[in-house]
Every structure is written in structure tokens, then in C-alpha cells.
UniProtKB/TrEMBL annotation:
Location of the Tetrahydrofolate dehydrogenase/cyclohydrolase NAD(P)-binding domain: 139-284
Known EC number: 1.5.1.5, 3.5.4.9
Name by which UniProt lists this protein: Bifunctional protein FolD
Alphabetical list of SUPFAM superfamilies matching this protein: Aminoacid dehydrogenase-like, N-terminal domain, NAD(P)-binding Rossmann-fold domains
Pathway: One-carbon metabolism; tetrahydrofolate interconversion
Family membership: Belongs to the tetrahydrofolate dehydrogenase/cyclohydrolase family.
Organism: Halomonas cerina
Any Gene Ontology biological process: tetrahydrofolate interconversion
Subunit comment: Homodimer.
Binding site for NADP(+): 165-167, 231
Length: 286
């Protein structure tokens, strides 16, 4: 049976480190690292994510500011709010919860955030910095996956990794981080041919396709490490159930290590958001 990579436990350790850093910044510099979260509209999943992020920030002793705007908010109003947060010295990190309602331009909103406060790591300057190996604010989900992977592979050098998914928020930054750690990286996606055999050759598979139980035991090399980023809300007998991109039961029998869903990558993502906010606060000190 595979070793379980428990994201709840690991994120609790990271959050403790965050809390000590917060205390240090308060004692030495008199600052309270503060995260501003902007939510536009009423998307139920986004509301849960925002609530969890704010809760964890407060538990770690950080400041948090929530801006909830109605679904009809205009681009100008949102840009004005971001401008205000960019210029507020009490705010160290800004997160605009995605997706935004369809009438708003996400790229424009992301580009409007001060890169030094861009704790999601989505601003083009931060994306470029990551691609060229000079990153400071790295997207939270791939950052969390790297911390989990290091539990099993302290040295990732030479590992053969397949990342399933090529989105800007997970797949691409994940591949960039793995490449920086000297892995051999293949990015697979919806048009990839022979995806099963590619995965079967991999020492590590990172699943970020958003397709419930896409990856089953036939795709996995015995002993491989499997990181499941997927969160798919599926109706089972009239009840809403969260499922990953990996068929957990069967894959756990063959893999060497595996993350569960829920309780795997999700909690690590939030922990890394707080790590980024601390990093941003420290950078803004100098
Ligand atoms: P996305 O829809 O933007 O991208 C999905 C990617 O998967 C695309 O590149 C697509 O080409 C690829 N894909 C789709 N179907 C495929 C298939 N059948 N075979 C191979 N590749 C396929 O999604 P995203 O934003 O990258 O998120 C991916 C998943 O991760 C979602 O389930 C999302 O909810 C989840 N997620 C979880 C966290 C977390 O904290 N745990 C954070 C972000 C996203």
C-alpha cells in the first residue's frame, strides 16, 4: 500500500512556521503581515475558498481584509480597488479570487496588481521570473506540491515526471518548478497521444486535469509517487462528493506514495499562500 502524503498534517507544520514568522515580524519591525482578498460575485466554491484563506490567515496571527463585491461590479471599480490596495502600506498581499464573472477581464485584473503584492504569483512579471529561475512569488498550488514531493524525494534531480494539465495556475508553473529541481519533465494535456504509456514510465505523476478519476492503476508504474491536484465535485446518489483526478483506491495499491482528495494538495495551497504573504511582507520591508 502506498504511503499517504497527508496535506492536513504537513500544512499544519507549515502554518506553525508561518505563525512564528508573523510573531518575529511583529516583534522586530512592528508590522502585521496582511492579506487582502477580493471576491466578486456569489460563486459557492469561491466563497468557501475565500472563507478558508481568511480563516487560516487569522489563525496564523496575520491581518486579513476581505472585499466582497457584487457580481455586476465593473472593471473600473475593480481596478480602482486594486489601485487602492496596491498603495496601502498596511496591505502586503493581494489575492483576487478566480474565476471572475465573465464580463470582467482576468488578465487585465492580474496585470493591475503590484507584482510585489501578487501572492498568487500570476502577474506576468512573476510568471517570467519563475520561467527564468529567479522567482520570488511562486503560484501556491505548485509550491505546495513541491513541498509534498520533497517529503518523498529530498533530491528530485533526474526524476522522470509527467504533469497532466497545462493551465497557467497549475500545470505550467508546476513544470517550471520541477525543471528547476533538475527533473525531466513532460507536460501532458487533452491533446496528448499515448498519455497512459507516458504516465506509466514516470517516477512521479502530477495530476491537474480536472477530470474525476481520469488516472487509474494501469497508468502508474509500481512504486511511483502520485500527486493529485484535481478537485471535482461529483454527484453520487444525490450527494455531492469531492473526487480527485486519480482513482485513489486502485492507484494506492500500486503507487509508492499518494496524496488524498480532500486533505492533500488543497490545504498545502492555502499554507503556501500565507508563506507568500510573509515573503511579500519581508520584501516590502527592504
Ligand atoms: P484547467 O481546466 O485550467 O486545466 C486543465 C488542464 O487539463 C488543461 O490543460 C487540459 O488540457 C488538461 N486536460 C483536460 N482533460 C484532460 C484529459 N482527459 N487528459 C489529459 N489532460 C486533460 O484546470 P486547472 O485550473 O489547472 O485545475 C485542474 C484541477 O485542479 C481542477 O480539478 C481544479 O479544481 C484543481 N485545482 C486544485 C487546487 C488545489 O488547491 N488543490 C488548486 C487549483 C486547481
Amino acid at each position: 500500500m502506498a504511503q499517504l502524503l497527508d496535506g492536513k498534517q504537513l500544512s499544519a507544520q507549515v502554518l506553525q512556521e508561518v505563525a512564528s514568522e508573523v510573531e518575529l515580524l511583529r516583534a522586530e519591525y512592528g508590522i502585521v503581515p496582511t492579506l487582502a482578498v477580493v471576491l466578486v460575485g456569489e460563486d459557492p466554491a469561491s466563497q468557501v475558498y475565500v472563507r478558508n484563506k481568511v480563516k487560516r490567515a487569522e489563525e496564523a496571527g496575520m491581518g486579513s481584509i476581505e472585499h466582497r463585491l457584487d457580481a455586476g461590479t465593473t472593471q473600473d471599480t475593480l481596478n480602482e480597488l486594486i489601485d487602492h490596495l496596491n498603495n496601502d502600506p498596511q496591505v502586503h498581499g493581494i489575492l483576487v479570487q478566480l474565476p471572475l464573472p465573465s464580463h470582467l477581464n482576468e488578465d487585465e485584473v492580474i496585470a493591475a496588481i503590484n507584482p510585489a503584492k501578487d501572492v498568487d504569483g500570476f502577474h506576468p512579471l512573476n510568471v517570467g521570473a519563475l520561467a527564468s529561475g529567479r522567482a520570488s512569488l511562486v503560484p501556491c498550488t505548485p509550491q505546495g506540491c513541491m513541498i509534498m514531493l520533497r517529503q518523498i524525494h529530498p533530491d528530485l534531480s533526474g526524476q522522470n515526471v509527467v504533469v497532466v494539465g497545462r493551465s497557467n495556475i497549475v500545470g505550467k508553473p508546476m513544470a517550471a518548478l520541477l525543471l528547476q529541481a533538475d527533473c525531466t519533465v513532460t507536460i501532458a494535456h487533452s491533446r496528448t497521444k499515448n498519455i497512459e504509456s507516458l504516465c506509466r514510465n514516470a517516477d512521479i505523476v502530477v495530476a491537474a486535469a480536472g477530470r474525476a478519476e481520469l488516472i487509474n492503476a494501469d497508468w502508474i508504474k509500481p512504486g511511483a509517487t502520485v500527486i493529485d491536484v484535481g478537485i471535482n465535485a461529483i454527484d453520487v446518489d444525490g450527494k455531492r462528493k469531492l473526487m480527485g483526478d486519480v482513482a485513489f483506491e486502485s492507484v494506492a495499491r500500486i503507487a509508492g506514495a499518494i496524496t488524498p482528495v480532500p486533505g492533500g494538495v488543497g490545504p498545502m495551497t492555502i499554507a503556501c499562500l500565507l508563506l507568500n504573504t510573509i515573503r511579500a511582507a519581508k520584501d516590502q520591508l527592504s
